[in-house]
């Protein structure tokens, strides 16, 4: 999760990006995989949350929501202030970490 989301998205082929974003479970699985990679690199909870926030910021600016769950997250993200976005990112890390166990 340490790679810049914009760079990671630019390097990812469009089909893979579409696969990840079309289905919320696939999105959670992908984010969960990134959380696991971050944990293996020694990132703590704060580092993982910071990475998730960067992903959230990127998605809010560059990607349209593709399902109901992403639409809700997008709306919450857009009305949240910076501190609230950190909390949303933290909850997403917890959610994806639990999903991948």
Give the gist of this structure:
With 101 residues, the chain is mainly α. Helices cover 80% and strands 0% of the residues.
Write up what this structure looks like.
The chain is mainly α. It contains six helices and no strands. The mean pLDDT is 87.
Topology, please?
Blueprint lengths: L4 H7 L2 H9 L1 H17 L4 H18 L5 H12 L2 H18 L2
Helix pairs in contact: 2-3, 3-6, 4-6
Name the features.
single chain, 101 residues, mainly alpha, 6 helices, globular
Look at the helices and sheets and give the structural class: mainly alpha
The ordered H/E elements are: HHHHHH
Percent of residues in beta strands: under 5%
Biggest beta sheet attributes: none
Helical percentage: over 70%
Poorly predicted runs are: none
pLDDT average, as an integer? 87
**Radius of gyration using CA atoms only:** 13 Å
Shape: globular
Q: Specify the number of helices.
A: 6
Tally the beta strands. 0
Compute the separation of the termini in Å: 18 Å
């Amino acid at each position: 999760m340490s790679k810049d989301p914009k760079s990671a998205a630019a390097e990812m082929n469009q089909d893979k990006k579409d696969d990840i974003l079309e289905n919320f479970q696939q999105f959670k699985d992908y984010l969960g995989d990134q959380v696991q990679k971050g944990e293996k690199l020694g990132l703590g909870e704060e580092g993982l949350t910071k990475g998730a926030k960067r992903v959230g910021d990127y998605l809010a600016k560059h990607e349209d929501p593709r399902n109901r769950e992403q639409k809700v997250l997008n709306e919450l993200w857009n009305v949240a202030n910076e501190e609230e976005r950190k909390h949303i990112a933290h909850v997403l890390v917890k959610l994806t970490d639990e999903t991948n166990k």
